Amino acid sequence: MKFEHISVLLSETIDSLDIKKNGIYVDCTAGGGGHSKAILDRLDQNGRLIAIDQDPDAIEALAERLGSDGRVTIVKNNFSLIKEILSDLNITEVDGVLADLGVSSHQLDTSSRGFSVHKDAPLDMRMSKTGPTAADLVNKLGERELARIIQTYGEEKFARSIARNIVRERAIKPIDSTLRLAEIVKYSIPASARRTGGHPARKTFQALRIEVNGELDRLDSALNDMFDVLKVGGRLSVITFHSLEDRMVKKRFAQFCEGCTCPKDFPVCVCGKVPKGRLPFRFITASEEEVEKNPRSRSATLRCIEKLHNRQIL
């Protein structure tokens, strides 16, 4: 099938992995295979790539694009299960892990998936096409819980007003389409606040998508596991698309890099803590040229960490 997706920060991300020709690499969110193909181009015949995605559309596209390459193993699953996935493949350590978070261009552009605020479609938003939909949330959750989700995951200051109007409108008729929800959100926000920041429903849609797919909860546990499976000298590169993800990645990488925490006046270290990782660079964002070609790259941030040893933080 045709799975259109423009890989953001492509060359920067592949460079950040510092790929070894005969290494083992994991693309945790392989999508249409853009980053995966670029990794394969730097591997020799002894290299190996594990391409993971939970979206059945992506799996079909990966099979068409990369399935004939003997170096590739395609896995339909969520990257939060990376340790289990690698264990099933009898792999204990890898040379690099990549996670390109967020929604793919294919998911946004395919109306039936219900991710876009601009296209009328069933209110779905499920990346895996399984489990409760966004429509289930907006039609069943209480007003207070809806407000919490929209405020926490969308960082939307008008969350209470939006939740109140969702509850009011669903009592009249179930909210089952993207454009109807977008219109409810729009009139829930003061006109003065609608003039900046893009579509007024963008933050609410982001919040519902994160909740539907459990994105932040899975990322929180997966960051430790993705780092744990690295060989010494291996690298983990993560591309985020909103501040909540980026803060989580930044904080966790800082913890991996933390060394001695003894008071400065101690003559010797007694805590025994040593950095488990180092940052090859602080972060990278898209160039003006890339943003011009692909506006969706504007919010992308790449962070990378290299594993120094396997010693546990005490």
What does the model show?
Helices cover 41% and strands 14% of the residues. Helix 8 packs across helix 9 (178-188) and helix 11 runs parallel beside helix 12 (243-257). It contains 13 helices and eight strands. 44% of the residues are buried. Strands 1, 2, 3, 4, 5, 6, 7 and 8 form an eight-stranded mixed β-sheet that branches. With 314 residues, the chain is α/β, with parallel strands linked by helices. It is globular, with a radius of gyration of 21 Å. The mean pLDDT is 93.
Shape: globular
Low-confidence stretches: none
> How large a portion of the residues is in β-strands, by DSSP E?
5-15%
- Please summarize the sheet with the most strands: 8 strands, mixed
SSE topology string:
HEHEHEHEHHHHHHHEHEEHE
Q: Write down the Rg.
A: 21 Å
Termini separation: 49 Å
Indicate the structural class. alpha/beta
Specify the oligomeric state. single chain
Number of distinct helices: 13
| Mean pLDDT across all amino acids | 93
Helix content range of the residues, please?
40-55%
Q: What's the number of extended β-strand segments?
A: 8
Helix and strand layout, with pairings?
Elements: H1 10-16, E1 24-27, H2 34-40, E2 48-53, H3 56-66, E3 72-76, H4 82-88, E4 94-100, H5 105-109, H6 134-140, H7 143-154, H8 159-172, H9 178-188, H10 202-213, H11 215-228, E5 230-240, H12 243-257, E6 277-278, E7 284-285, H13 288-293, E8 301-307
Parallel strand pairs: 1-2, 1-4, 2-3, 4-5
Antiparallel strand pairs: 5-8, 6-8, 7-8
